[in-house]
Amino acid sequence: MKRRTFLAATTAAATLQLARPALAQSSRKISFLTWNIADAADIVNSWIADFTKARPGVEVEWLDKKGPELPAFYQTQLVAGTPPDIINTQGALGLEYAASGALLDLTPLLARQADVKARFNADYLDNWAMEGRNWMLPFYISKSLMFYNKTLFAKAGLAGPPTSFDELMNAAEKIGTGDNTGFITLNFDWLYWPLFAMNAVQLLTPDLKAPAFNTAQAADVMARLARGTQGQAVDKISWTGRWVEPLGAFAAGRIGMLQAHSPAYYFVKGQGPWVNADTLGAAQMPGNWATPNSHGLGISKGSKHPELAWEFITFITSTPQAAKLVNTRRILSANKELDAALLARLEKEEPLAAAVLRTQVEHTDRMCGNWRLAHDSRIKEAFYPELQNVMLGRKDAKTALADAERKVARELRRA
Question: 3-class SS at 88?
Answer without folding.
Answer: strand
